[in-house]
Design brief:
With about 70 residues, the chain is α/β, with parallel strands linked by helices. A 3-stranded parallel β-sheet has the order 2-1-3, sandwiched between helices. The chain is globular.
Length: about 70
């Protein structure tokens, strides 16, 4: 499964990446720090799974999902 990490905090993305290492079926294919970056990554990478921060500045994760 290809996963995309979306979180405005770099340390949170790093920790999530670390927590996913025991799961070989989950391949982290990209990261985004905000909604505009996430849209570009979604279009380019076509992930199967999103790890999405709900509270981000400017646009929330829930707004991004809409």
């Amino acid at each position: 499964m290809k996963a995309l990490l979306i979180d405005d905090e770099r340390l949170a993305r790093n920790e999530l990446r670390r927590l996913l290492t025991p799961f070989p079926d989950v391949e982290v294919i990209g990261e985004a720090a905000n909604a505009p970056q996430a849209r570009k990554q979604l279009a380019a990478l076509k992930p199967d799974l999103l790890f999405l921060d709900v509270q981000m500045p400017e646009e929330t994760g829930m707004e991004l999902l809409e």
